[in-house]
Specification:
Chain A is built from 10 helices and no strands. With about 190 residues, chain A is mostly helical. Classes of the chains: A mainly alpha (about 190), B mainly alpha (about 270). Chain B: This is Putative zinc-finger domain-containing protein.
């Protein structure tokens, strides 16, 4: 099916970068996918498990993620950003569609890799520094429902609409919560 | 990176013992730091199982365009695959196609118009019955021994196959009938008898084995309709007249009712 002949120097090795591996997967190399799986499945599992208590659903989402990678690796555009962010976006969307049951696969199918933001959002940059400074405290003092919206949008890279699905609230509510959360954070950090 | 996720932190993260803000910090850091990602301990057994599952997924052939279209139209895809994976069925389809088209050609080019039309009308309803009778069961389906061991065997499969073959043979019959000489609606006069004979065969199959039921009804139809047509003088034999047509419709409705009530007793003709 994807039996394109690949030149030997393109063959994936354990030293290949993730981007090179993705390119090899796009060329139909199962071995490259296996290496990506070995590298990324463990942390994806750990991180997804923070969002879903059912290990079976998490496992299914991880498997779906690599199936999506197999099909869509050619759509990955090397923007100089770590491919892990791209893979995570796929994984968390797979988790959402797994949570919503097989009748709602369309949400997962709407995962068009390549629509991810090119640069990390300001929230993301700040979160990287949460260990130092008072942001951690501010986040802890945020009401849980507001924090969940921040987590889904800023961290998981979901759109407000997807965040609303994940949290099981109407889109308008998610939008309001996101605004309130940002306002509260500004207050707490002032 | 100003800091890295150390082992105790990672452990607390995995066990869900962290503050929400620190969970978020670890989330963000894992996404950005390959070293910390690879430090997440991998359960080798889990990893293998997960990879096997992924392999299974990527090796499952993607559904073809017909199957995808049918699924979008609301038909259950696994049923279609079941139907498509039946070579015996395909042969009976092919036989029906050839027979129907031959009838069309013969009727159009042989003898005088009235005789050819009459014989077309008498013979055409038999095609769906033939298709139904050969769609399932030991003499026709070489895979029957295997099929009968599966949970999908039995009445449900008979009905699925019957629907498929009747649909196809009726459609082909319509094409052939449209090519016939004479007024257009004459050519459609066989549709209701065909419907009655197919449903009647299935209804009768709740009492008798399927091939026997088909044979009985087909023979009865040929004797009655053929006899009346030969004896009669009218342009359109009385068995295809308006009164008879409403009778067929009524009888077909009755047979459908019987079939619905007794569908669990449908006898596919296999030895019990």
């Amino acid at each position: 099916m994807r039996g394109k002949r690949t030149r030997p120097e393109e063959a994936a090795t354990a030293r290949s970068s993730d981007t090179e591996l993705l390119r090899a997967v796009a060329a139909g190399q199962v071995e490259a996918l296996r290496m990506l799986h070995g590298r990324h499945a463990p942390w994806l599992r750990a991180r997804l498990a923070r969002r879903c208590a059912d290990p079976d659903v998490v496992d299914a989402a991880v498997q779906d993620t690599f199936l999506a990678l197999w099909k869509d690796a050619h759509r990955y555009r090397d923007t100089g950003r770590d491919p892990a962010a791209w893979i995570w976006t796929i994984a968390v969307r797979r988790l959402i569609s797994a949570l919503r049951g097989p009748g709602h696969r369309w949400l997962g199918a709407a995962t068009t890799p390549g629509d991810e933001r090119v640069s990390p959002s300001p929230e993301e940059l700040v979160l990287l520094r949460v260990e130092h400074g008072d942001l951690g405290d501010a986040l802890n003092r945020l009401p849980p429902e507001l924090r969940a919206v921040i987590q889904a949008t800023a961290l998981d890279g979901l759109t407000v609409r997807e965040a609303a699905r994940l949290l099981g609230v109407p889109e308008g509510t998610a939008k309001t919560r996101l605004m309130r959360a940002r306002a509260r954070l500004r207050e707490l950090l002032a | 990176m100003p800091w890295h996720v150390d082992e105790p932190l990672l452990e607390a993260y995995q066990q869900g013992r962290l503050d929400p803000s620190r969970v978020m910090a670890v989330d963000a850091h894992l996404q950005a730091c390959p070293a910390c990602r690879s430090a997440v301990p991998a359960d080798a057994e889990w990893l293998d199982r997960s990879w096997e599952a992924v392999l299974d997924l990527i090796r499952t052939p993607a559904p073809g365009p017909v199957e995808r279209a049918a699924e979008r139209a609301g038909l259950p895809g696994h049923r279609l695959r079941l139907l498509a994976a039946t070579p015996a069925l395909r042969w009976s389809w092919l036989a029906a196609t050839v027979a129907v088209l031959t009838f069309g050609v013969v009727a159009a080019y042989a003898g005088d118009a009235r005789t050819s039309l009459t014989w077309f009308l008498v013979a055409a309803p038999l095609l769906p019955v033939l298709a139904v009778a050969t769609a399932y069961g030991p003499p026709f389906d070489p895979m029957h021994e295997i099929t009968s061991m599966t949970p999908s065997a039995g009445p449900a499969l008979v009905l699925w196959r019957a629907t498929a073959v009747v649909g196809v043979s009726m459609a082909l019959g319509l094409v052939a009938a449209a090519l016939l000489p004479g007024p257009g609606w004459y050519a459609a006069a066989w549709l209701l008898p065909a419907f009655l004979l197919s449903v009647g065969t299935l209804a009768l199959a709740t009492v008798l084995p399927l091939p026997v039921a088909a044979g009985l009804l087909a023979t009865g139809w040929v004797i009655v309709a053929g006899g009346v047509s030969i004896a009669g003088e009218a342009d359109l034999p009385v068995v295809f007249g308006p009164a008879a047509q409403s009778g067929y419709l009524l009888a077909a409705a009755l047979a459908a009712g019987v079939l619905t009530r007794r569908r669990r007793r449908l006898d596919p003709g296999e030895s019990r």
